[in-house]
Amino acid sequence: MSQNIRFFKDQMSKVGVSPKEFLEKEVDMDLDNVEVKLGELEAEISKFNANNDKLQRSYNDLVEYKLLLDKGPSAAVAEITRRLHRRVLGPLPPVPTGQGKLAAVAVLRPPVPACLR
């Protein structure tokens, strides 16, 4: 609670509002209610931050996919194949093509059971 009070004191001083203005108004405030309200607002801000992080990750993924599609369908297919392989069977080893670029390797494996498709 003392951290919250110090934070509000700092914020009020930055804005140029003094606590005396509030104390002179003789508003009956219950500190328990204020603390509960602060807790609710803090929880709401935490949810906003979590949602913002999820949205940022989704946006970054979409930008990455767009870049892959802009490179051409073969690059996109190779990247998607690599990611699927990494999720299902583990990392796919890159193979040099001789021009400093990497190519995807087709790996023969047993068919995927229908229940996992």
From TrEMBL:
Keyword Coiled coil among UniProt keywords: yes
UniProt keyword list: Coiled coil
Superkingdom, taxonomy of origin: Eukaryota
Coiled-coil region list: 24-58
Protein name in UniProt: V-type proton ATPase subunit a
Organism encoding this protein: Brassica carinata (Ethiopian mustard)
